[in-house]
Design goal:
heterodimer; A: alpha+beta; Naphthalene 1,2-dioxygenase Alpha Subunit, Chain A, domain 1; Rieske Iron-sulfur Protein; 2 domains; four-stranded antiparallel sheet; 10 helices; 19 strands; 24% strand; B: mainly alpha
Chain lengths: 433, 114
């Protein structure tokens, strides 16, 4: 159960130190080049889910600027998931310019070279004019690909230093069994934010901002501590990844993970005299949404790795999978965000929320209510990022100070910096970025 | 011109809210005044359970008919304006990022058709 006195997170992770965090990694183009080389080109990057390419021939393409790569991920004719660089073996045009689709073959539009879904080169127009062309050696360049609980990851390193399981299991092995596959109704949004990718993630991995940035929306849906502040129940800092676990207000829709799974909370009704009670639409959505999904959510058991402090008011965990993937699961839906760097001061924020398929009009109404509320909360989260980046670039400050429960910001900076130092040392370039 | 189902003809003056995509519904919300949003909520919210009961009694083929889809979209518009009514007392998110820049992927494969 919830320990009454918990050590400060920084005391539990003394190796992370307590010094202020330098600003340079957030604003320096040269530092970003090192991140590309030693972080993004050297690790597993989450790119999608198996449901997106459920059928043979279905594919999607992800442009990974931080890896200098465009990667095709395809369900090949033998049933496997394959990944290739989107680069023709002839004169290097992209073999597809679509973002997703279904294909029997990929045809390069430049000179008509044709590739099978397993990457093999199968057709070359006017082939006789090439001398000794060995088609068997001219397939698309493969990219390492693997899946974890239905999430597809790629690694552009030709010789990955570890398998995807070795990379994820030490921190996230306890999440196996979560019913990701049941949540196939997905809403997604994208935006390019003019800020460093780490500044973007940082806004999503602490609760200190919630009372201020989300004061009008979800601040009251989370559980305050005895002093009235918002802090996580606990945090875990791993070799690469990090986790937070968070308690909610059980009388709120957002803060009660069982709100739609059979236990209707006593809604807090507003009596401020505006005529419509402040949560009247929420109450209607909850009531009409009961039992409104094609699967029976009440039968689901959550894996032991969730709510690891076993807090009775637990609402959700935040999992940040190094380097740029945010995953937060609740019993009835989950959120998955990518923060893909485009340059040192530009980030593609790709946000998705997955619900079970609705079976009734009320079920769909409830999902729309939850989805719209989440989208607007994300608009609040995004609101500070470009100002923060611009402020960082003024040079007015060379460091930032953080409090104990912002430790994930320190952890992110520290892990990235460590990977760069290790990479530079291994390349014989000295360990100073 | 297909209208709303006859049972809900009282909502006919609000039929312009019955837009098919999240993007359109959000733009309509942002183009509305708060008093228009509150008037819309006051008209539709008391009928929400009648709307879902009516739609759920239909066959999938009937649900796909234009007038019934329009009724569903009217209900989804109620969800769209909920934050304006419940959180912000304002059509847009207060001090929020530009909603037009946070683009919904309406054509994403796993997105529900409606």
């Amino acid at each position: 159960m919830n320990a009454p006195v918990r050590k400060r997170l920084h005391e539990r992770y003394p190796e992370l130190g307590t010094a202020p965090i330098p600003i340079q990694p957030y604003i320096d183009p040269a530092y970003y080049e090192l991140e590309k080389k030693y972080v993004f080109k050297k690790t597993w990057i989450q790119v999608g889910r198996v449901e997106e390419i459920a059928e043979v021939g279905e594919y999607f393409v992800r442009d990974l600027a931080a890896c200098n790569a465009s990667v095709i991920v395809v369900h090949d004719k033998s049933g496997k998931i394959c990944a290739f660089h989107n680069v023709c073996s002839h004169r290097l045009n992209k073999v597809t310019t679509e973002t997703c689709g279904k294909a029997k073959k990929f045809f390069c539009k430049f000179h008509g070279w044709a590739y099978d879904t397993n990457g093999a080169l199968t057709g070359v127009p006017d082939e006789d004019r090439f001398d000794n062309l060995d088609k068997s050696k001219l397939g698309l360049t493969p990219v390492h690909v693997d899946t974890w609980n239905g999430f597809i990851f790629v690694n552009v390193d030709p010789n990955p230093s570890m398998t995807l399981a070795e990379f994820l299991n030490p921190m996230f092995g306890g999440l196996d069994g979560y019913p990701f596959h049941q949540f196939t109704s997905c809403f997604s949004w994208q935006t390019v934010v003019n800020c460093n990718w780490k500044i973007a993630i940082d806004a999503f991995q602490e609760l200190y901002h919630v009372a201020f940035v989300h004061g009008l929306s979800i601040a009251n849906a989370l559980q305050k501590d005895e002093k009235g502040n918002l802090n996580p129940l606990d945090g875990l800092c791993g070799e690469y990844h990090r986790r937070l676990t968070i308690a909610g207000n059980p009388k709120s829709v957002y803060g009660n993970p069982n709100a739609i799974a059979g236990e209707t909370p006593a809604m807090e009704v507003d009596t401020s005299g505006r005529g419509i009670s402040a949560r009247a639409i929420a109450a209607a959505a909850l009531k009409l949404g009961q039992g409104g999904t094609k699967i029976d959510l009440s039968a689901n058991k959550m894996p032991g790795g969730m709510n690891w402090t076993q807090d009775p008011n637990w609402a959700f965990d935040i999992n940040v999978i190094y380097p740029d993937f945010y995953l937060s699961m609740r019993p009835t839906y989950y959120q998955a965000y990518n923060f893909r760097p485009i340059s040192h001061d530009k980030t593609l924020f790709d946000a998705r929320v997955y619900y079970p398929e609705a079976a009734t009009a009320g079920g769909r109404f409830y999902q729309e209510y939850m989805k719209v509320a989440l989208r607007d909360v994300l608009l609040e989260d995004l609101s500070t990022l470009e100002d923060t980046q611009a402020a960082a670039e003024t040079g007015a400050k060379s460091e930032m100070v953080i409090q104990d429960s912002e430790i994930m910001i320190r952890h992110q900076y520290t892990v990235v910096d460590r990977m760069i130092r290790e990479g530079l040392t291994a390349d014989g370039r000295g360990a100073t970025p | 011109m297909t209208a709303l189902p006859g049972k809900f003809s009282a909502l006919e003056p609000l039929a312009s809210w019955a837009l098919k995509t999240e993007t359109e519904r959000n733009r309509n919300r942002l183009a509305s005044t708060q008093s228009e949003i509150i008037a819309f909520t006051r008209a539709v919210l008391p009928l929400a359970s009648d709307i879902t009961a009516y739609l759920d009694a239909l066959s999938p083929e009937e649900q796909a008919q234009e007038e019934n889809e329009r009724l569903m979209c009217l209900l989804l518009a109620l969800a769209e304006v909920a934050p304006s009514v419940e959180a912000y007392q304002n059509p847009a998110v207060v001090d929020g990022y530009d909603s037009f820049r946070f683009r919904a992927q309406e054509d994403f494969k796993l997105r529900p058709k409606l």
